[in-house]
Amino acid sequence: SVSWNSVHNPTAVNAPFYAIVTTYSDSAWSTPIDTGSIALSTSGQIQVGLTVSETLTFCTGTSITGQNCGTIAGSVVNLGEGSTTAAATGTSVFAASTNAATGYSVAVSGATLTSGSNTIDAMTGGGASSVGSKQFGFNMAPANNAPVVGAAVSGSGTGAAVANYGTNNNFRFNSGDIIASAAGSTNANTFTVSYIANIDGITPAGAYNTVLTYTATANF
């Protein structure tokens, strides 16, 4: 091995410099065997940065492709015509995700179905669909069969419906209720909201409507 001192690379950025290397047959370095040159450069470093902001992504509608909020569409759920022999049904969807360590909560607010001064009773205590009784409620359960409506939560996230709104064939509606949540940061989930409406034989005729607002907030 051979070592020597007092040799330094240039300090300027992106400056080329060169070295010539020669091998010798003797320790006196008097008889060269081979020689060659090397080109070098003090190239500058490239710093790459990425900023990830805190995010809470949420969207509502009546249709969506996967969990892509860019495809959300629709705002009207048509339950059809009320009947004393079968529940009227319909669905909407919402999707949510967040990188917040404490997760999110989704709440609903609004009134029950109303036509003038006439109303369909909200299922404030929750329960099964009862054909022939005035009822309005919903859930996000995966496999309702009485009536058949809805779909399971989809997506790779950890969001889930709360117990009162996630049980098959148990429908409920209380304005202000938290209906779904995630306990930590989560990829997106798409929830299907399954609505039911029943009437009794003396329910006054009319067009019954309501406007529901779904709100997602980060947990603290």
Structural description of this entry:
It is a single chain. Helices cover 0% and strands 41% of the residues. The chain is built from no helices and 16 strands. The protein is rod-shaped.
Characteristics:
220 residues, mainly beta
For this structure, the quaternary state is single chain
Helix content: under 10%
Number of extended strands: 16
Write out the strand line-up for the largest beta sheet, numbering strands in chain order.
3-6-15-10
Order of helices and strands: EEEEEEEEEEEEEEEE
Going by helix content, strand content and strand pairing, the class is mainly beta
Mean pLDDT over all positions: 95
Q: What's the story with the biggest beta sheet?
A: 4 strands, antiparallel
Write the layout of secondary structure elements.
Elements: E1 16-24, E2 32-41, E3 56-61, E4 63-65, E5 68-73, E6 88-98, E7 104-109, E8 114-115, E9 118-119, E10 135-139, E11 144-145, E12 148-149, E13 160-161, E14 178-182, E15 186-198, E16 213-218
Antiparallel strand pairs: 1-2, 3-6, 4-5, 6-15, 7-14, 7-16, 8-9, 10-15, 11-12, 13-14
Brief digest:
This protein is mainly beta and 220 residues long.
